[in-house]
Amino acid sequence: MSTCSFDGLTGRVVTPDDPFYHEARQVYNRAVNRFPLAIVYCRNSSDVSNAVLWARKRGICLRIRSGGHNYEGFSTGNNVLDIDLSELNQLSIDEEGRSFTAEGGANNKQIYEFLSSRGYPFPGGTCPFVGVSGYVMGGGWGLSCRYLGLGCDSLLRFLMVNSEGSLITASPEENSDLFWACRGGGGGNFGIIVSMTFALPRKIDKITLVEIMYPRADQEKQTYFLLSWQDWLEHADPRITLIARIYNSQEEGRSILSRGFFYGPPEAALGSIAPLLELGGVKYRLKYVTFLEAVTIIGSFYPPYEAFISASGFVSRELSECECFKLTELIGNRPAGSIYTGLSLYALGGRVSEVPVDSTAFYYRDARYIVWLNTIFQNSKGENALWLAERFNYLSSVTTGSYVNFPYEGLPCYLEEYYGRHVCRLKKIKKEYDPCGIFTYPQAIGGSCNCSNL
Fold first, then answer.
1. Where are the beta strands (DSSP E) in 141-252?
2. Which letter, b or e, does each residue of 296-312 get, where b requires 16 or more Cβ atoms within 10 Å of its Cβ?
3. What strand order describes the sheet that includes 240-249?
């Protein structure tokens, strides 16, 4: 690999000969172990354009990396050029115009701190170091989504480097089909976003951080919590968004933990969550804090990295008691090397479902919530992968589709799973904006890399 000439690349280039290479190639999921040809850290749109043209000229496939949190590691690969945007992260605000702009490598933490210092929330994700451009392109579920919408719902326009290395704008008025596709059509499919402009939400003073715990909850209690969850969510106050984890860990055994945001005072939050507090042994906390304090607390629970395998599905109907029992049964026996198995529930509805299904590429507007099944392990990746594959059949039998920001390589028909009936339209837009298949990865729209044919 070291014999390749990197002349023509601009920005900071890390090659396998660099002592920083092995640290730089790592992504969040340490179950992913890939060896790119080089990593180029782009600091402006010209660096991005040069990287695209350099890869095209040499017939080298490229990957796009912002925060490096793609669950299957699709933002990197073996013998590819990793285009890393993390140093392209400047932020600006236009309060008079009710908008702010973030460069393509900005992450949740950077945007939260920038906006919160001025009194604004943002419908970003839970993990602080996730790149917002990838998050938004997949739709963007977060703990504000039922109140403020998905991350992509606030997007006003963006600048993108296309497959020709040119800078183009997409908005409702310009390249509107591309603008539609990049709000739910998945990161890495159409080009490289170098700048995003979002609508500013209303300023807020404080929100209520909600935490509900059922320590040592056996399978029966986990099952009834899942039943209570779906009943609660059907009529939940749109000001609240929760994520609940029904899990089996090496340290705690079977337990339940739910956290989220309520855009209002603790008294109203308590009334909203009351149906989730009715099982025996509950502990809960309500903290009235600034938005920045809330996202910082949530972010503090994420480790700098972990090794895991996971799969997801959308729940679009009421599940029976038997189905809920079988779901909680999935996490009962951890595979070899696993320290945690879990079912995570991500609340939808509210503002998410108010947007018409065909207004953006995000297809599952009408779903009630997302279920995410995962195992975290210290070794024995193969056994953990087999464990997930064996359970995926049941998960998929009671859910619809799969969330593209929670990708799973084991999906048999991944395009239809991620995008539903929007697949055909997305394929047409892909062909229009990337006819040679420059932007690709194992589950990309349009198939394999065609760079070698250029």
1. 155-161, 167-170, 192-199, 207-214, 240-249
2. bebbeeeeeebbbbbbb
3. 283-289, 207-214, 253-262, 240-249, 338-347, 369-377, 308-315
| Distance (Å, whole) CA 79 – CA 62 | 9
Query: How many of the other CB atoms lie within 10 Å of CB of 35?
Result: 14
User: For residues 438 and 190, what is the distance between their CA atoms, to the nearest angstrom?
Assistant: 9
Average of per-residue pLDDT across 230-255: 98
Q: Which two tokens stand for residue 44?
A: 């402006």
**Which residue bears the tokens 């994420």?**
302
pTM above 0.85, yes or no: yes
152/362 Cα distance (integer angstroms):
9
3-state secondary structure of 91: strand
How confident is the model over 345-363, as a mean pLDDT? Answer: 98
Token digits for 140?
A: 């963007």
Residues of the chain by 3-state class (helix, strand, coil), percent to 5? 30, 25, 45
Q: How far apart are CA 405 and CA 20, in angstroms?
A: 28
Residue from 214, 230, 234 nearest 222 by CA: 214
Tell me what pLDDT residue 452 has.
34
Question: Can you say whether residue 139 is alpha, beta or left, with left for phi > 0 and alpha for psi between -120 and 50 degrees?
Answer: left
pLDDT tens digits, one per residue of 245-299:
999 999 999 999 999 999 999 999 999 999 999 999 999 999 999 999 999 999 9
Tens digit of each residue's pLDDT (9 = 90 or more) over 71-118: 999 999 999 999 999 999 999 999 999 999 999 999 999 999 999 999
Pairwise CA distance, residues 70 & 87, whole Å: 18
Q: What is the dihedral of CA 275, 279, 283, 288, to 10 degrees?
A: 0
